Amino acid sequence: MPWLDETLDRLADKPVCGYRPGAPPAVEPTALAAMALAAHRRMSPAGQALGWLAEIQSSDGSLGIDAAHRTPKWPTGWGVLAWSVIDAAAQPSPSPWHAQAARGVAWLLATEGKREQAAPLLGHDVDLVGWPWVEGTHSWLEPTAIALLALKAAGLGDHARCREAVRLIVDRMLPSGGWNYGNTMVLGNVTQPNVQSTGLALAALVGEAIEPARLRPSIEWLRRTLSPSTTTISLGYAVLGLAGHAASPDEASQWLAAAYHRTLQRGASPYALAVAALAALGAACPWYRRDHRPPVTRHGTKAEPCSCTPAAREVAHG
């Protein structure tokens, strides 16, 4: 795919990147660029990106928006995910970012969304705890999905926090399928699904013991909603989420190529290019490595032992 080679060349030229060309380097686009480059065997520039993330990691293990803004800390999940997929690929020897991944995992496990007082107008279970955008606030869908992906990649898919995160994501599913940023209802009105949120939620639920009929409305809504004009970032997350459930549209490659050219015309956002390069991997995206998945329990069967990375074992067992 010529567009993909060109995308990887652009990312490799400046792997420590921001949301748009010329913007300050930021954690989210740099972590996504690192994963895309590494998955496509561009290891040297991927290492530059991972090294920059390590340089700006705070002493508590968290990552902020960028080097100048250490809060809010929700991007920590992206850093942990990037370090962990590389750490797992380096086994049996730890990667150079093994310690950073372990510290990031510790921060994620220690951070919780705030429980709210139950109210019928909210429409979701406020006792379920995931991760917030900002510490000290309520759990939201997207940071919870990102943290779940990260902890699974670190080998902690069977941890209690991950199991509760799965319940939260399923609970926040909209009645007709799909997800929005967090709520199912606002002031008694059912909210509308969002493409990016739905793609991320489906990606986080890959490998979970959820009845197919429960996810089918969300998968079908996303497939119906995608089109050749879907924005690059939304399309990328949607393709990733669908591919993890073997439901990627036949036109995915064609749509990603068209989205790449639109992205160039609109300024060549490194963030958008990184998401597209990951989406091009489909089910081969490193988020979905088999050894990252949690033990699957169906109808009361016993879970298989967890295949944890060294970073995860250090946190889980002290």
Tell me the layout of helices and strands.
Blueprint: H1 2-13, H2 27-39, H3 43-56, H4 76-89, H5 98-110, H6 141-153, H7 160-171, E1 185-186, E2 189-190, H8 195-204, H9 212-225, H10 232-243, H11 252-265, H12 270-279, H13 310-317
Supply the key terms:
single chain, 318 residues, mainly alpha, two-stranded antiparallel sheet, 2 strands, 1% strand, globular, disordered C terminus
As a percent range, the share of strand residues is: under 5%
Quaternary organisation of the protein chains: single chain
Q: Considering DSSP H and I runs of 4 or more, what fraction of the residues is helical?
A: 40-55%
Structural shape: globular
Gyration radius, rounded: 18 Å
Mean pLDDT: 89
Placed side by side, the strands forming the largest sheet appear as: 1-2
Sketch the major β-sheet.
Answer: 2 strands, antiparallel
State the end-to-end distance.
46 Å
Order of helices and strands: HHHHHHHEEHHHHHH
Number of helices: 13
User: Uncertain runs with pLDDT below 50, 5 residues or more?
Assistant: 291-318
